[in-house]
Amino acid sequence: MLKLYSFMNSICTQKVFITLAEKGVPFEVQTVNLFTNEQFSPAYLKIHPKGVVPALDHDGKIVIESSLICEYLEETFPEPRLIPADAHGRSRMRLWSKLVDEYLFEATRELSFSAMFRERMRNMSEEQREGRFKNTGDPIKRARLESTYNEGVDSPYVYQGIGQFEIAFEKMEKDIKAGGPWLVGRDMSLADINMMPFVARLAYLDLLDVWVGDRPAVQDWWARVQQRESFQKSIPANIKPSEFEEMKTFGGNIRERVAGRRADYLRQPKFAA
């Protein structure tokens, strides 16, 4: 039996949901409430020492890290196939996993925080805010959180995230045009699944077209993604209408500034004609 420790609007959990939906594998959900710090409970820290979601329990065997969970599911339940058949295709797929894990996760977190969670923290008491900073458990993560709280979109970490998305969408446009319609050829793979929740978060924040308004191949990819049943049942179906409205409202509040900072990024020498 599969048990997935998750939080429904967690972007990392969402890609595991999509993989499970594509595989048609039954599983049980154990919700870990991130807003009440359940992820830092002694019981959960025994499951995932980093205190994050998701974590997968497969008959007592624990698998952590969302990209590794997706590959574990692919190897354990190989049909339908979600990895390229050839070694070069698999290496290209894993480059997308690395891009997401090493860059886009933090980029999405900073943008989401500057849009929504920053406003929530402003309504907290000083003691509550300090508790939230303290609970990060990581001095680097705390520095990013404090910078984004204090400076919002003007934080250097948000600027860095805007640049990382620019690089990612430029690569998407080139890769799809060179051999799509998916990121690694004609078949959807874990490369696409890894990207889906991160692109969806930008879309729900009403920020996506800041990057893809002039990238037709990425727009077509996003349209295809939204038509897949696995995507619909794994992300939109698990988000409340009030949450959609909140994301759109708060994202809209920073939209103009995000577009301005992207324009600043594009003026850097490496993008000069």
> Structural class from helices and strands?
alpha+beta
Strand line-up in the sheet with most strands: 2-1-3-4
User: What radius of gyration results from the CA coordinates?
Assistant: 19 Å
Share of helical residues: 55-70%
Q: How many separate domains?
A: 2
Compute the average pLDDT.
Answer: 92
Please work out how many helical segments DSSP would assign: 12
Question: Describe the biggest sheet?
Answer: 4 strands, mixed
The geometry reads as: globular
CATH structural class of the largest domain: Mainly Alpha
Strand percentage: 5-15%
Order of helices and strands: EHEHEEHHHHHHHHHH
Judging by the overall fold, what is the CATH architecture of the largest domain?
A: Up-down Bundle
Structural write-up:
β1 (2-6), α1 and β2 (28-31) form a beta-alpha-beta unit. The chain is 64% helix and 6% strand. The radius of gyration is 19 Å and the shape is globular. It folds into 2 domains: 2-76, 3-Layer(aba) Sandwich (Glutaredoxin), CATH 3.40.30; 87-271, Glutathione S-transferase Yfyf (Class Pi), Chain A, domain 2 (Up-down Bundle), CATH 1.20.1050.10. The N and C termini lie far apart (55 Å). The longest helix is centred in the middle third of the chain and has 36 residues, at 87-122. It has 273 residues and is of the alpha+beta class. Strands 2-1-3-4 form a 4-stranded mixed β-sheet, with helices on one face.
